[in-house]
Amino acid sequence: MYKNLYSERANKMRSSEIRELLELSQRPGVISFAGGLPNPKAFPVEQIKEIVNRILEEEGSKALQYGPTAGLKEVREEIVRYVKKEGIEAKLENIFLTVGSQQALDLIGRVFINEGDVILVGLPTYLGAINAFLAYGAKLVGVPLDENGMRVDILEEKIKELKEKGEKIKLIYTVPTFQNPAGVELSEERRQQMVEIAEKYDLLIIEDEPYRPLRFEGKHLPSIKSLDKKGLVIYMATFSKILSPGFRLAYVVANEEIARKMVIAKQSVDLCTPTFTQLIAYYYIKNGYMEKHIPKIVEMYKRKRDIMLEAIEKYFPQNCKWTRPKGGMFLWVELPKHISTIEMFQDAVKEKVAYVHGKAFHVDGSGENTMRLNFTNPSDELIEEGIKRLAKVIKARV
Ligand code: PMP
Ligand code: G9A
């Protein structure tokens, strides 16, 4: 009955497999490797309690009030200092806060995408970005990944091909560090090459970095933004994986003109990012808590990755392949070609184990024999049991 009333945009919106699975994952007895949820033990409840009490006592009138759309000045100043440690030189005008980096992805769509504009994305890539961009009518073109992240040689070939066909290419979207979903990291050389490609073809790079602080091994690589001299990289980072996703707090670093446009777009979306959570995160960094907290999360998640890898090696059939991520929250599994992880999901649910099927992350409809496993949310004990259940389900189809 409402069909004729919906906008064309509403008809393009797709529901997220990950969000749909959250309810199932919470059913009693189900071991979920599906959602990219942090472990609740990683939430610093006591310190947040202390900060919240102090904010309410001393700054209640600010914390409970509307704030500027770009975010509170002192919070943005703190972020200027924070990203400097990442080699990113930013001024206040380059930075604004958002309600999660998911909102930043939506704002990108709002500000840059006309119907049919091309965005180049990884094959696979983050589902939430796919859905945000599709809602604005973007045409998403996939570029394969290997163990060193996006294949920038293929990226350039695709750009040339698309240009020859007269397509309007706007953006390259990448999650360079411990990518969601594949867990791989874009090599330093490819980061540099990606910037060169953006310069050569007048494109913007969206560098989405939720997992950058969650490194278990290896050396930190320069952010793509730190290699960008021309203002072509829009960098986004979030507090979701290092503090609390419930805060819905993230930030964007971009060229001043772009930041201004995105902030204007944000004005209509929500007026401002909650001042309360901004202040909590601010004091969390300022008091030095963040610096001490991140290594604890890293230690916990590294242990969980190791438990999952060990269990996979022990229980999975030999003709499966999987990644060994050096950080982040996910590993990626490839099953023999004839197995559909979409069809197999019903067996998994019967065995009370959940994952996200890989096709959801592929904009070209491929990846049906793949799946993403999250290792951060389940308890250590349940990881092994869950992998055992999953192995049983896979073996029945091999
Ligand atoms: N980008 C990527 C790559 C993600 O993995 C996620 C969360 N899973 C987000 C963006 C959204 O994060 P948030 O909105 O919580 O900041
Ligand atoms: O709960 C969400 O939707 C955030 C997690 C994203 C993911 O699992 O990739």
Structural class: alpha/beta
Largest sheet: 8 strands, mixed
Q: What's the tally of helices?
A: 13
Radius of gyration: 21 Å
Number of DSSP strand runs: 14
* Overall average residue pLDDT: 96
Q: What coarse outline follows from CA principal-axis ratios?
A: globular
User: For the largest beta sheet, what order do the strands appear in spatially?
Assistant: 2-9-8-7-6-3-4-5
Order of helices and strands: HHEHHEHEHEEHEHEEEHHHEEHEEEH
Q: Which parts are unreliable, with pLDDT below 50 for 5 consecutive residues or more?
A: none
Alpha carbon gap, first and last residue:
45 Å
The percent range for strand residues is 5-15%
Bound small molecules, by name, code or SMILES, are: 4'-deoxy-4'-aminopyridoxal-5'-phosphate, (2E)-pent-2-enedioic acid
Helix share bin: 40-55%
Written overview of the protein:
The protein contains 13 helices and 14 strands. It has 398 residues and is of the alpha/beta class. It has an eight-stranded mixed β-sheet, with helices on both faces. Strands 10-11-14-13 form a four-stranded antiparallel β-sheet. Strand 4 and strand 5 form a beta hairpin. Helix 5 runs parallel beside helix 6, helix 5 (100-112) crosses helix 9 (256-270) and helix 11 (289-315) runs parallel beside helix 13. It is globular, with a radius of gyration of 21 Å. The mean pLDDT is 96. It binds 4'-deoxy-4'-aminopyridoxal-5'-phosphate (PMP) and (2E)-pent-2-enedioic acid (G9A). (2E)-pent-2-enedioic acid is lined by residues 18-19, 35-36, 128, 180.
